[in-house]
């Protein structure tokens, strides 16, 4: 990490994704999992026996633990607000899993609390740290591809996987494929285009599962810099996974894929960029890099790798897309983030 400080990490929501974070932390020097919390006591004890740390069934006790300096929150979406506000009020640095919160009022409350707390705060938009996406971002920032004209970002995956819970299946608790899955392509395309969304038009439906939330969606975005994008968000019953970002730029094309890396299209030829190919588990590599950059921002007091205002803009777009689908027209967005 570059310094001799050992940062104590506490995980609130020590479930399947909390476990992936614990594995990432174990791969880093300068950080140590010192505490974990979950209401399911037997599962919590199994977690701390594997990854270490003091088990707390009540996360307020974890927040009182002075060895915890950084809190990672991976609770169900509708519980983000309470845990995030409590952690910020306790003066902890906070890494909050996406989405920020499932409604605009709660997002605003968290952003305001971050401003007042004076600690480092980051939202876990993990795509920014995937090896292929880091390479794509560098290529775009270099100016080599010119400007992004159009983007198509898809995340289509099997929905009822083993870690699916009841709260995932109801929009009231922040569930649905759009807020769980579709938020990723929305985030990564907006990050690559590097411009706020000005209008959004969308259609969501529930076509594959009996649930009180969407499982299919298509979203059209206009960006302030003149680019436009389409997002495809599907949690299918039967199909095959598709996780792509395809960019049309003024000086060529870029396709980005977690496992296939970055391919550049120029002079009638597609070429893979070798350093964009993952050398191991791309998700693990991304979480390790996410933590490395977050700790570095704390140590060096530099801007958060994924700041609250960016994450809030992503949610403004997500909510406006839902409104567009209900009202069947394009919705304008007042951007509170600019790169």
**Gap from first CA to last CA:** 27 Å
Indicate the proportion of strand residues: 25-35%
CATH class of the largest domain: Alpha Beta
The run of helices and strands is EHEHEHEHEHEHEHEEEEEEEHHE
- The total tally of domains equals 2
Q: Which residues form runs of ≥5 with pLDDT under 50?
A: none
CATH architecture of the largest domain: 2-Layer Sandwich
CATH fold category name of the largest domain: Dihydrodipicolinate Reductase, domain 2
CATH homology superfamily name of the largest domain: Dihydrodipicolinate Reductase, domain 2
Question: Mind telling me the C-alpha Rg?
Answer: 20 Å
Could you say which structural class the secondary elements and strand pairing correspond to?
alpha/beta
């Amino acid at each position: 990490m570059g310094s001799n400080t050992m940062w104590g990490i506490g995980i609130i929501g020590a479930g399947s994704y909390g476990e992936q974070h614990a594995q990432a932390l174990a791969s880093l020097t300068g950080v140590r999992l010192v505490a974990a919390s979950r209401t399911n006591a037997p599962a919590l004890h199994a977690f701390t026996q594997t990854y270490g740390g003091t088990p707390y069934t009540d996360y307020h006790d974890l927040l009182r633990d002075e060895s915890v300096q950084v809190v990672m929150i991976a609770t169900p979406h509708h519980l983000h607000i309470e845990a995030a506000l409590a952690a910020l009020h306790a003066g902890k640095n906070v890494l909050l899993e996406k989405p920020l919160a499932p409604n605009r009022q709660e997002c605003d409350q968290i952003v305001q609390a971050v401003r007042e707390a004076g600690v480092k705060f980051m939202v876990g938009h993990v795509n920014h740290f995937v090896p292929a996406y880091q390479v794509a971002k560098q290529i775009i920032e270099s100016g080599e591809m010119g400007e992004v004209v159009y983007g198509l970002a898809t995340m289509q995956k099997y929905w009822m996987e083993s870690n699916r819970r009841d709260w995932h299946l109801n929009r009231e608790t922040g569930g649905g494929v759009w807020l769980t899955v579709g938020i990723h392509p929305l985030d990564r395309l907006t990050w690559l285009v590097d411009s706020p969304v000005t209008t959004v038009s969308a259609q969501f439906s529930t076509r594959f599962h009996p649930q009180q939330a969407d499982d299919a969606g298509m979203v059209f975005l206009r960006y302030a810099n003149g680019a436009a994008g389409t997002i495809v968000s599907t949690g299918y019953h039967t199909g095959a996974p598709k996780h792509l970002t395809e960019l049309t730029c003024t000086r060529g094309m870029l396709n980005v894929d977690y496992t296939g890396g970055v391919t550049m299209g120029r002079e009638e030829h597609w070429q893979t960029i070798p350093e964009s190919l993952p050398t191991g588990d791309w998700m693990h590599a991304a979480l390790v890099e996410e933590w490395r950059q977050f700790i570095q921002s704390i140590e060096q007091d530099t801007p958060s790798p994924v700041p609250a205002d960016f994450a809030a803009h992503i949610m403004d777009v997500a909510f406006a897309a839902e409104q567009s689908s209900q009202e069947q027209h394009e919705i304008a967005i007042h951007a509170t983030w600019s790169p």
